[in-house]
From TrEMBL:
It comes from the Eukaryota. It holds the Pfam family Ank_2. Residues 1-34 have a biased composition (Basic and acidic residues). This is 26S proteasome non-ATPase regulatory subunit 10. It comes from Paramuricea clavata.
């Protein structure tokens, strides 16, 4: 007979009941911590799967239907647009893939200084929101950002010092390349940290249509 079988039945029941109470208390403590209010702003103390504590970022990532409902129910000015997730991306890094959402955020937010700072923030790959827009080749978002602040076109990535045109070429988007050349022709001969220009990128990627466009626009083909 085991030691537990030798113990009085009432003692076994008491021990199991005590253990169950302890477990329940721990569970309630965890629930309380995850739902504890943090003030007037609608934030959560528990990070989501994408590593973000900002409900605005989560709403934008979920899609247009969720975002529209979220915009109706909340005041965007209650949120810090400079807040980032585990990838060091703020809400604008995600909004560039949804031009209608990007436009609404820029229109509704009143803290212009915070917007400007957020649009200049780099993620863990060194890219700002306009760089992300160039990577995915979203022309509508590029138009919106250019109209909001055309100086964003001059930004280079924090890593490798690539221009928006470098990234458009790298993403193999002829439409994005044409957009940047039309908006800012001076981008054509910008160089990265390795002194490589967009034409070098096009040649190494064997992008004949992009290469032809760059040459047609007068890029410097001198080998460096």
């Amino acid at each position: 007979m085991s030691e537990k079988e030798q113990e009085p039945l009432h003692r076994i029941n008491e021990d199991e009941e005590l253990e169950l109470k302890i477990l329940n208390k721990d569970d309630r403590s965890k629930d309380a911590r995850s739902t504890r209010p943090t003030g007037n702003k609608r934030t959560s103390s528990a990070r989501s799967e994408d590593g973000s504590t900002n409900p605005l970022i989560r709403a934008v990532r979920r899609g247009s239907s969720s975002t529209s409902l979220f915009f109706q129910e909340t005041n965007l000015n209650d949120f810090d647009v400079k807040e980032t997730d585990n990838f060091q991306r703020n809400v604008f890094h995600y909004a560039v893939s949804k031009p209608d959402v990007l436009k609404k955020i820029l229109k509704q937010l009143k803290t212009k200084a915070s917007i400007q700072e957020a649009l200049n923030q780099a993620d863990n790959e060194g890219e700002t929101p306009i760089h992300r827009a160039a990577v995915i080749g979203n022309i509508e978002s590029l138009e919106i950002l250019h109209e909001y602040d055309n100086s964003l076109m001059k930004l280079k990535t924090k890593i490798s010092k690539r221009s928006v045109l470098h990234l458009a070429v790298k993403s193999r988007s002829v439409v994005a390349v044409r957009f940047f050349l039309n908006k800012d022709p001076d981008l054509i001969n910008t160089v990265d940290s390795m002194l490589q220009s967009p034409v070098h990128y096009a040649a190494s990627l064997k992008q004949s249509s992009v290469l032809e466009l760059l040459i047609c626009k007068g890029c410097d083909t001198t080998e460096k």
